[in-house]
Amino acid sequence: MSTAVVVEAPGEHRLTAHTPRRPEPGEALVRVHAVGICGSDREVYQGNRPEGYVRYPLTPGHEWSGTVEAVGAGVPVSLVGRKVVGEGFRNCQVCDRCHAGETTLCSDGYEETGFTQPGAMAATLTLPARLLHVLAQDADLTAAALLEP
């Protein structure tokens, strides 16, 4: 059985059964190898994250590495089996801020893996494939979890 960490509310967490979510068009399913714990994860657990920057209950984990297991329609099948890390911010890519390269200031609103969207403290993570960064096949996935692109 696969498991995931879920922070139900500040100071409340549990281990729960995890079922991988099949990737929809434009998404990839990644088998998580390693996940880092950052000061912002501590803020999520303690309830110190500013309002609007966390959505409970939540599976945290925004610093991670893994291997692509499946892809949805429109995503190159050649990604399957590749080692990857991923960006956390889920920007719209079409607003003026995104076009200016200021993707963390996206005017479409704040969405981020591990804070408002499910994170990598689970056996798998399904996310937009455009957020993935492919690593060399000989990359050390444990060390790669610290990359946080």
Keywords:
single chain; 149 residues; mainly beta; Quinone Oxidoreductase, Chain A, domain 1; two-stranded antiparallel sheet; 3 helices; 11% helix
General description of the model:
With 149 residues, the chain is mainly beta. The chain has a single domain, classed as Medium-chain alcohol dehydrogenases, catalytic domain (Quinone Oxidoreductase, Chain A, domain 1), CATH 3.90.180.10. It is 11% helix and 28% strand. It contains three helices and seven strands; from the N terminus they run βββαββαββα. The protein has a five-stranded antiparallel beta sheet. It has a two-stranded antiparallel sheet with strand order 1-2. A hairpin with a 2-residue loop joins strand 1 (3-9) and strand 2 (12-17). The longest helix is centred in the N-terminal third of the chain and has 8 residues, at 39-46. The mean pLDDT is 95.
